[in-house]
Amino acid sequence: xxxxxxxxxxxxxxxxxxxxxxxxxxxxxxxxxxxxxxxxxxxxxxxxxxxxxxxxxxxxxxxxxxxxxxxxxxxxxxxxxxxxxxxxxxxxxxxxxxxxxxxxxxxxxxxxxxxxxxxxxxxxxxxx
Length: 128
What we know:
This protein is α/β, with parallel strands linked by helices. It has helices at about 20-30, 40, 80-90; strands at about 10-15, 35, 45-50, 55-60, 75, 95, 105-110, 115-120.
């Protein structure tokens, strides 16, 4: 049995006071359901969201926040066109491309962190 059996969550960093913007962006705009953080962690701030596949996206408060411009999560969608319409309707800038072999868009969250939203799956190969 492998030591690692899957991915549980991804945490993005955000500045103090990020909660309302996180709910508006990840909750209202992208449609993710908010999760209740464990009581012991609520004092740290931030917001957790559920992904439809059972994984989670955590927005955590970082005192000396710096946006991540390269490292990023890639969220999956079944309808990239609908995502693009939603982003455009809410004046969220994005860049579309298919250089990785699948349609995708890159955008930034409210604090400048890079995000990717991809339709389909990237091809993966083990070994050379």
